Amino acid sequence: MDAAEATMEKLRAQCLARGAVGIHGLARFFRCLDQDGSRALDAGALRRGLAELGLRLDAAEAEAVCQRWDRDGSGALDLDEFLRALRPPMSQAREAAVRAAFAKLDRSGDGVVTVDDLRGVYSGRAHPKVLSGEWTEDDALRCFLDNFDSSEKDGQVTLAEFQDYYSGVSASMDTDEQFVAMMTSAWRL
Q1: CA–CA separation, 66 vs 46, rounded Å?
Q2: Residue 141: which H helix or E strand, with range?
Q3: Which strand (E) or helix (H) includes residue 92?
Q4: pLDDT per residue over 124-176, tens digit each?
Q5: Which helix (H) or strand (E) holds 22?
Q6: Which of 55, 1, 10 is nearest to 30 (CA)?
Q7: Can you name the residues that pair with 76 across neighbouring β-strands?
Q8: In this structure, are residues 50 and 61 in contact, taking their beta carbons and an 8 Å threshold?
Q9: What's the Rg (C-alpha) of the chain?
Q10: Residue 47: which residues within 8 A CB-CB, separation 6 or more?
Q11: pTM of the predicted model over 0.85
């Protein structure tokens, strides 16, 4: 195991100790730190951000992580790739449940879930803002879709984005049986 992988294991353990929101919260926090919208952080910003959350890396560890996930040679780590690597891998049973839920949502079968795909699968009519007249049902569906969408919020959710979301949820569940039961119940699989 190289230095970057050892550091990722250390960070993963620290995040998982925070429960279900550990990695998801870290992703949200890093996106706030990314003030220029580049979706990248240098080693200093990475260390400062982690320190604000109570997660510690020394300078060498931060540098190793940045080098490992620096896709363009800029000296900064790619946030999406970093966060994807930080999430623990899902078992085959968990991945199958996620793929089944995605397939149910992707009514058009084009590999992307949109508001149009959600109609008839998920209803936003009972959302309080729809009931009050503040939102349309499409607004509620877009808001729901945003839960799974990447930081770009383009109104389209790919299988990779859906898997990223559920890998964070998966990390907080001890057994495959619990995770599969939750997915089966939530998505009526």
Answers
A1: 8
A2: helix 137-146
A3: helix 92-105
A4: 888 899 999 999 999 988 888 888 876 667 888 989 888 888 887 887 787 99
A5: helix 21-33
A6: 55
A7: 42
A8: no
A9: 18
A10: 57, 59, 62
A11: no
